[in-house]
């Protein structure tokens, strides 16, 4: 099985390539295709990255190949990590609309190239932001089941880690999902949290203790307040800003910590790459596994009495041919309400770049 990484020399793309090789996800007989742009620095750096990876991992590296023309991308799994990023400088806000305007062309280019020249079977993992727009454009072009965005899986892993830290266990003992839109519009599904080794009563008591008497009705305000507090704290002392994050409930930390990391200039490349590789491994593995991801829905989910026909982060079954089933359990009222609002906001955000049109037409 072969993997292509589009945007291989970017901060995230480079981490994905390195981890794919270092974690031996691909055997030496497989091919890792590093995809760059024909113009600019990335074309030269793509060849350099291939040489550096062989230098480091010659004993077990897969075959390494460079592609600079979208028409030459060939793989069983294509990871799209190319494009502009935002919010990496102190005080810089993430304007998802502006980011969409920039990255829509990148998504459209590879959607078109894979539709024309691909095998018709490749599975695409979208990393670039806005991940929902990437899933919409690539899903429309290639078939929606073959395209998954990794933002909800990263948010899910972060949610599990924050809950685990508050309870005092390791992440692998915590289950549960964070869904919705990647970024501030994520939806932590507290009702799905499970903790290995605890019975139902014990788990409920632990969740109530670490969550407190809050609901998702105030979540957006809490995230806004957290960012303001961090902006002030970070001016004085970045260590103090990260210490402040630790004083908040798990779901606020879930949104605030990556935001602070991005603002620190460090970016979130390692965590993003690791979550991406989970999805790539799942597809290559050949067995169906439940993950969370942004997918293009066609009525599989009903929120506020309306079927969702658009992109939304949800738990899905992922396998060798892409995602097959949505596994969204019955939600608590506050979760349902927030997820319905988020679905509408994603649809509105994606509409200018797709042919699906207005909110009402998409979610009916
Ligand atoms: N989904 C997530 O959880 C998540 C997390 C972190 C970053 N991201 C996103 O990943 C993307 C990349 O982030 P980064 O920090 O690596 O950015 P970066 O600026 O370091 O790298 C972007 C790379 O994309 C390349 N590129 C741009 N247009 C291209 C094209 N048409 N074809 C091939 N390559 C092209 C550039 O040459 C560069 O190497 C951004 O959109 C960012 O928002 C997503």
TrEMBL record:
Molecular function via GO: L-lactate dehydrogenase (NAD+) activity
Binding site for NAD(+): 7-13, 103, 127-129
Tagged with keyword Oxidoreductase: yes
Domain of life: Bacteria
Keywords: NAD, Oxidoreductase
Coiled-coil region(s): none
Domain Lactate/malate dehydrogenase N-terminal: 2-137
Limits of the Lactate/malate dehydrogenase C-terminal domain: 266-350
Single biological process term from Gene Ontology: lactate metabolic process
Active-site residues from the entry: 182
Family: Belongs to the LDH/MDH superfamily. LDH family.
Protein name: Lactate dehydrogenase
Species whose genome carries this gene: Cellulomonas uda
